[in-house]
Amino acid sequence: MTVHSVCNETDLAVGKQMAVKLENETVLLFHLEGGFFAIQNRCTHVFRSLEKGKILDGCRIQCPLHRAEFDIKSGQVVKWANFPPGIQLLNALRSEKALKTYPVKVENGQVSIEV
């Protein structure tokens, strides 16, 4: 695994997110009340980017396409894709799958992600 320095701690306000290109993938970095967290950028339903997803209740990300929701800290599915009506037919083929998470460290004001 490789550790990548991505930003200063003050560069990302609490409640905000930023996409970071690391190696061959894009990772979403979040600054939540409980610290910094990083997840894969692609929804596990149909692989849509989560970069423009909504942060809900300060701890979940909602996919902008089919509204699947994931816990930002653990990557676990909170609610599977449910929009638009009829998407459940596709869900029969695309079972629930958690997002990949990445370890984040903050040292001397510098935020790093391990990939």
Write up this protein.
With about 120 residues, the chain is mainly beta. The protein is built from one helix and eleven strands; from the N terminus they run E-E-E-E-E-E-E-E-H-E-E-E. It has one helix spanning about 90, and strands spanning about 5-10, 15-20, 25-30, 35-40, 55, 60, 70, 75-80, 100, 105, 110-115. The strands form three sheets. It has a four-stranded antiparallel beta sheet with strand order 2-3-4-9, with no helix packed on it. Strands 5-6-7-8 form a four-stranded antiparallel beta sheet, with no helix packed on it. Strand 3 and strand 4 form a beta hairpin. The longest helix has 4 residues, at about 90. The chain starts with a strand and ends with a strand. The relative contact order is 0.24. The model has no long low-confidence stretch (mean pLDDT about 90).
Set out the fold topology:
Elements: E1 3-8, E2 16-22, E3 25-32, E4 35-40, E5 54-56, E6 60-62, E7 69-71, E8 77-79, H1 88-91, E9 101-102, E10 104-107, E11 110-114
Antiparallel strand pairs: 1-11, 2-3, 3-4, 4-9, 5-6, 6-7, 7-8, 10-11
**Runs with pLDDT <50, length 5+?**
none
Order of helices and strands: EEEEEEEEHEEE
Rg on CA atoms, Å: 14 Å
Across the major sheet, the strand order is: 2-3-4-9
- Strand proportion, as a percent range, falls in 35-45%
Helix content: under 10%
Count of alpha and pi helical runs: 1
Structural class: mainly beta
**How many β-strands, per DSSP?**
11
Overall 3D geometry? elongated
What would CATH call the class? Mainly Beta
End-to-end Cα distance, whole Å, is 5 Å
CATH-wise, what's the superfamily?
Rieske [2Fe-2S] iron-sulphur domain
